[in-house]
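Problem: given the chain below (71 residues), write out its structure.
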Amino acid sequence: MNTVRLNITLPASVNEDMNRYAKELNEKKSHIISSALDMYFDYLDIRVAEKRLNDNEPTISMEEMRKELGL
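Solution.
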């Protein structure tokens, strides 16, 4: 997996929580941050999908999707 080094600023309380969880779970802080962001991006995907639905963006039927996927 490709990785990049980032320099970020966090509230002290978030850093304290992260340190506590890292110690308790014996995980690196970078892993905790990466996992948290993955979960947050999943949440954002849902919000974007809901926004698109509310904006009446074009949709396709389940049957059309199955045809596109070759199912």
